[in-house]
Amino acid sequence: MAEKIALYSYGTYLLYVFSLYLVFMVYRTNNLALGSSLCFGATIMAFFLTCHFLESPLIDLGRRLISRPSGRPVALPAQEISVGS
């Protein structure tokens, strides 16, 4: 549950500035109530689109790359450790 909340809050944090810019600067909305509603809707829509079409596939790709063997192991030469002077 905490993981989902963190995912949603981080996605919202990343996208709300873009939504504010889109609603108030590009579309030049002067009505604060309408602009806030549009901004909220645009943030939620942008978050779900980026989460399902960008973030989730890339997370899955990263998990597949990590779980895949990276090749044969490399043996490192042993080093002498001197204690004292």
What does this structure look like?
- By secondary structure, this protein is an all-alpha fold.
- It has one domain.
- It is built from 2 helices and no strands.
- It is elongated.
The SS-based structural class is mainly alpha
Number of domains: 1
Shape: elongated
Mean pLDDT: 83
Computed CA radius of gyration, to the nearest angstrom: 24 Å
Describe this protein with a few key phrases.
mainly alpha; 72% helix; 85 residues; 2 helices
Topology:
Elements: H1 2-26, H2 32-67
Helix pairs in contact: 1-2
Brief overview:
By secondary structure, this protein is mainly alpha-helical. Helices cover 72% and strands 0% of the residues.
